[in-house]
Design a protein that fits this description.
Elements (H helix, E strand, L loop, with lengths): L15 H11 L4 H6 L1 E7 L2 E6 L14 H17 L6 E12 L10 E11 L2 E9 L5 E14 L6 E2 L5
Antiparallel strand pairs: 1-2, 2-4, 3-6, 4-5, 5-6, 6-7
Length: 165
């Protein structure tokens, strides 16, 4: 399966919340999101919910949903929640990811949802907690991500390190 390239402009003059709202409206920006079949379903300040349509392409060798799918949902849900809190001319990068698998993900229990919320913010860092559930409401995993907030160059769109105070 070939996914199309990401088709989503990170307009440096827009806040993260504005970008998250646009993502919600667009639903599918392509790239890894399309390959994984993930799209946002709810966005609010410091919170994002994602939906992942599960299919046979998500399977591991044991016939269950691969743990990397779940880990990716934690990264995307936490990053999306953090995204809603950044200002114009800022971007975020995941600095760490922790996953606790609680139940196996079954292919016949999709879609999966990942709900992330920011639990801590200090200076140029945020932490988001994420819970991943299957369609029956079973909690498959809990996790957290740390993100670093970086300045985005207006001219080039490149990320530039900023003072970490």
């Amino acid at each position: 399966m070939t996914a199309r390239a990401v088709d989503f402009s990170l307009d440096p003059d827009k806040t993260g919340y504005e970008l998250a709202q646009r993502w919600l409206e667009q639903r599918q920006p392509g790239g890894f999101f399309e390959r994984l079949r993930v799209e946002p379903t709810e966005v609010s300040t410091g919170r994002m919910m994602l939906r992942c349509e599960i299919d046979a392409g998500h399977a591991n060798l044991a016939g269950l949903v691969h743990g990397g799918v779940t880990a990716s949902l934690i990264d995307m849900g936490g990053g999306g929640a953090a995204m809603t809190l950044i200002g114009a001319h800022e971007t975020i990068l995941t600095s760490d990811l922790a996953v606790r698998y609680l139940a196996p993900g079954r292919l016949d229990r999709g879609p999966f949802t990942a709900t992330g919320h920011v639990s801590h913010r200090s200076g140029r860092r945020m932490v988001a907690q994420v819970e991943v559930l299957d369609a029956t409401g079973t909690v498959l995993a809990e996790g957290s991500i740390g993100v670093a907030i970086r300045a985005r160059s207006v001219q080039s769109g490149e990320d530039k390190p900023r003072d970490r105070r």
